[in-house]
Design a protein that fits this description.
Number of helices: 9
Helix content: 10-25%
Structural class: alpha+beta
Strand content: 25-35%
Distance between the termini: 48 Å
Number of strands: 25
Radius of gyration: 21 Å
Bound molecules: the ligand Nc1nc2c(c(=O)[nH]1)N[C@H]1C(S)=C(S)[C@@H](COP(=O)(O)O)O[C@H]1N2, molybdenum atom
């Protein structure tokens, strides 16, 4: 695996092709009817009325009790100094990343679960690859099965990559832009980065007899069906174009040198570098490989951008946005008249981070932060900046990252009904005492 890679395939253009194929009756979507899709195409307001996008969902997530033990579906301990529990999910506290290395220890790596963590046994695990895009094994109806030991026997790679929920930073749509959006009100802690070891998906697809006509692959998790306001959306799954699947996706069985923990997909998860977290299907059980474009609720209703400035029918969320964060709490106190070495991290799904700037005067002046790591595609960089505040009282820390592709964090994020990809500069309140 190379650390910096050529530009990703243009998923937005591909998505428009998928939509046309669907309308022509040549695409398939389990659990998603043609009427659903036509509705989607017709109107963004439909998305606003969806359960995870509605005010009711936002209210219930906000009202969920926070603290240890409040997310019973998560296997690992969630001490309050490391995590904020949000419904079935656990958000990492940025103050807990200070002093950790480039990669996030498992004890503080965020968890985003649609339901509960299943405790699966590697010995009983099988990966089934099937569909019209495979030559397959004789007599197996094009399906191929792989055990855990068989997967482990294949040539492995190690790759550092962040996993970030597309909804990371969602709460700032309301607090910074006065816009109401639906979904889990994350601050900036729905991200972690780790060293993943596993087998390139390309290796497994080629062994299974990938056909040239294959266009999409759709990994699916073994966790329970996802129920969304009375509608069963089936098991968590999301299609990927074959071009991305062959490029840098891995079937990961180790995280930071240890077997994958239960909460992060034990025994095997898909890891899709640089893309939004939902593509990285945990507890993967099967992968459909299709000669026709595929859809699932996770690329048609959920994890899709809808809004007045977006194309009709919406735009899929693919790559992670360019963002940055300080490794301290909101409201943290700093002594006046002393120099403080602030630290943080910056990342982008569009290429390595090129630079990070900080401002302590509301954006009137910016100066460069020092990067502490060599920037790499798909991973974050640590950075530091010194700050000597004089005046006591409320102050605001600002950080702004720019990536190799030239994307810079804007002052405002593009509104979308479900609050994905908040990439604007975050106003980080602190107190000088
Ligand atoms: N099977 C399955 N895979 C899943 C999910 C899930 O609920 N079930 N959540 C997805 C989402 S939305 C994100 S952001 C990442 C989170 O990965 P983590 O919990 O290891 O941090 O996993 C993705 N993979
Ligand atoms: Mo996510």
């Amino acid at each position: 695996m190379t650390s910096s890679s050529p530009a990703a395939p243009d998923e937005s253009a591909y998505d428009r092709v998928r939509l046309r194929q669907w309308l022509a009756g040549t695409a398939r979507a389990d659990g998603f009817t043609r009427r659903d899709l036509l509705g989607l195409l017709a109107a963004a307001p439909l998305a606003a009325a969806l359960p995870t996008a509605g005010p009711a969902a936002a209210a219930s997530a906000a009202a969920a009790p926070a603290g240890p033990g409040a997310a019973p579906g998560i296997a690992k301990p969630l001490p309050a100094e490391l995590f904020t529990v949000r419904d079935t999910n656990a958000e990492t506290r940025w103050s807990a990343l200070r002093g950790t290395g480039r990669h996030t220890p498992v004890d503080r790596f965020f968890v985003r679960n649609h339901g509960a963590t299943p405790r699966l046994d590697a010995a009983g695990w099988r990966l089934r690859l099937w569909g019209s895009g495979l030559r397959g094994a004789p007599g197996l109806d094009r399906a191929v099965e792989l055990t855990y030991d068989e997967l482990r026997a294949l040539p492995a790679v190690t790759r550092a990559a962040f996993v970030e929920c597309a909804g990371n930073g969602r709460s700032f749509f309301a607090t910074q832009q006065g816009e109401q959006v639906g979904g889990t009100p994350w601050t900036l802690g729905a991200i972690g980065s780790a060293r993943w070891r596993g087998v390139p998906l390309a290796t497994v697809l080629r062994r299974a007899g990938l056909l040239e006509r294959a266009v999409d692959v759709m990994p699916r998790g073994l966790d329970d069906d996802y129920l969304s306001e009375g509608t069963n959306l089936g098991r968590v799954r999301r299609p990927l174009p074959v071009a991305k699947a062959l490029r840098d996706v891995i079937l990961a069985y180790e995280m930071n040198g240890e077997p994958l923990p239960y909460d992060h997909g034990h025994p095997v998860r898909v890891l899709v570098p640089s893309w939004n977290g939902v593509s990285s299907i945990k507890w993967v059980g099967d992968i459909e490989v299709s000669a026709e474009p595929l859809y699932s609720p996770w690329n048609t209703r959920l994890y899709r951008l809808f809004g007045p400035t977006l194309p009709p029918g919406g735009a899929p969320v693919t790559r992670a946005a360019v963002r940055s964060a300080f490794e301290c709490a909101f409201g943290e106190r700093f002594a006046a008249g002393r120099t403080h070495r602030l630290s943080g991290r910056a990342w982008s799904g569009a290429g390595p981070v090129r630079r990070v700037e900080v401002s302590f005067d509301d954006g009137a002046h910016w100066r460069p932060a020092r990067l502490a790591d060599r920037p790499r595609a798909g991973d974050w960089v640590r950075w530091t900046a010194d700050w000597r505040p004089y005046r006591t009282g409320a102050a605001t820390l600002l950080a702004r990252a720019t990536d190799e592709a030239g994307n810079t964090q804007p002052e405002r994020s593009v509104y979308n009904t479900q609050g994905y990809l908040f990439d604007a500069v975050v106003r980080h309140p602190v107190e000088v005492v």
